[in-house]
């Protein structure tokens, strides 16, 4: 994994008069980090701060040494983001065109771009689907396409916000394996705790605060207990 760092320093955030994040101090350097917490606890807000989709009311978020507030463009290049619903991210009509769009900045020659896009589809298990309308893919295939389109942009960090919510067990396991093969730093928000059991670090968020920060067995056990009270 390339050296990456994500630092939250005294981060606070409110939507209207609802405080959503309170005093978040974090230094995220591990390769695979999971974030869990009840609905509405603030996970997505925290995750969206890593690529500047949401800026904190106070405090700072620093990614690879850059203050997100001041370097939005570079930070967006460093941090890829995928959502639960891949339809939000698939833009072009056919599968291969979607990858070609992501490559359009880095590969100027059309023929080279097409060849590279086909290679990417193979790498992400989508060979044979190049000319298929993207909306005809299964949920799992769409998530792979959204992921491939983000990864070809060359981020050093990938943030995934509940990436398996819309997937069946087979596709969930497949995505877990694809994630396991990525070199980049990975931050995954999930209600599916099983996909996080071999991660390096788990954060448990409750009411806008980090209430546990540990290796998976301890953190997930803490979370399960706190949810069953
Ligand atoms: N754009 C917004 N405007 C107003 N309130 C918001 C906005 N985004 C989130 N919230 C509120 O902030 C709180 C935290 O939301 P957030 O999406 O960060 O939680 P979450 O932990 O990701 O939840 P979930 O597990 O349900 O996805 C919730 O009460 C939510 O309603």
Structural overview:
By secondary structure, the chain is an alpha/beta fold. About 35% of the residues lie in helices and about 25% in strands. The protein is built from seven helices and ten strands. The strands form two sheets. The chain has a six-stranded mixed beta sheet with strand order 6-7-8-3-9-10, with helices on both faces. A hairpin with a 2-residue loop joins strand 1 and strand 2 (about 20-30). It binds adenosine-5'-triphosphate (ATP). The site of adenosine-5'-triphosphate has 11 residues, from strand 2 and helix 1.
List keywords for this structure.
33% helix, ECF_ABC_transporter_ATP-bd, 7 helices, P-loop_NTPase, transport, 10 strands, ABC_transporter-like_CS, globular, 6-stranded mixed β-sheet, 229 residues, Rossmann fold, alpha/beta, 4-stranded antiparallel β-sheet, binds adenosine-5'-triphosphate
What's the quick description here?
The protein has seven helices and ten strands. It has about 230 residues and is an alpha/beta fold.
Task: Map the helices and strands.
Layout: E1 6-15, E2 18-28, E3 32-37, H1 43-50, E4 58-63, E5 66-67, H2 72-78, E6 79-82, H3 95-103, H4 110-123, H5 139-151, E7 157-161, H6 169-180, E8 185-189, E9 201-206, E10 209-214, H7 216-228
Parallel strand pairs: 3-8, 3-9, 6-7, 7-8
Antiparallel strand pairs: 1-2, 1-4, 4-5, 9-10
Helix pairs in contact: 3-4, 3-5, 5-6
The protein binds adenosine-5'-triphosphate.
